[in-house]
Amino acid sequence: MERRSDGSLADILERVLDKGIVIAGDIKIDLLDIELLTIRVRLFIASVDTARKAGIDWWETDPALSSRAARDDLREENRRLRAELEELRPDDDGAHAQDRLERMREKR
After folding, report:
1. Tens-digit pLDDT profile for residues 17-36
2. Which of 27, 61, 69, 108 sits a CA distance of 20 to 30 A from 93?
């Protein structure tokens, strides 16, 4: 008996990535009706475009996965440090950097 396949693996994969597929499950470990451990697993397999349509784009803002997100973090850190340095510069009235540093610490 010959079995006919409706599509190749590539066709199936293309369909899954185009539409997306969700796999969900829970693993729960109880001992004498006392919950010891619960692991929730949610897996969404889709193309990047399909994931974006579903509102999923965490890889764009995670510095470990996105060089742009890492640059944004560095830019924010740079801005914060520059503001702190500006606070340490002497005022026109001659306030010393140490006095300004103490005032900054009191603000925190």
Report:
1. 788 887 888 889 888 888 88
2. 108
- Rounded Cα distance between 38 and 103, Å, is 48
- For residue 25, the cross-strand partners are 41
Closest by Cα among 68, 66, 105 to 88: 105
The identity of residue 85, as a single letter, is L
Q: Output phi, psi for 96, to 5 deg.
A: -80, 155
- Give the global pTM: 0.39
Q: Which of 13, 7, 24 is nearest to 46 (CA)?
A: 13
* φ, ψ (nearest 5 deg) of residue 6: -75, -20
Q: 54: which 2 tokens?
A: 């579903």
